[in-house]
Amino acid sequence: MKTAIQMLIGVGAILFLCVMLWESGRWQFPDDKLVLELIAKALALAAAVELAYTLFTDGPDEAIDPPVSRSIASIGESARVPLS
Question: Residue 43 — pLDDT band, cuts 50, 70, 90?
Answer without folding.
Answer: very high
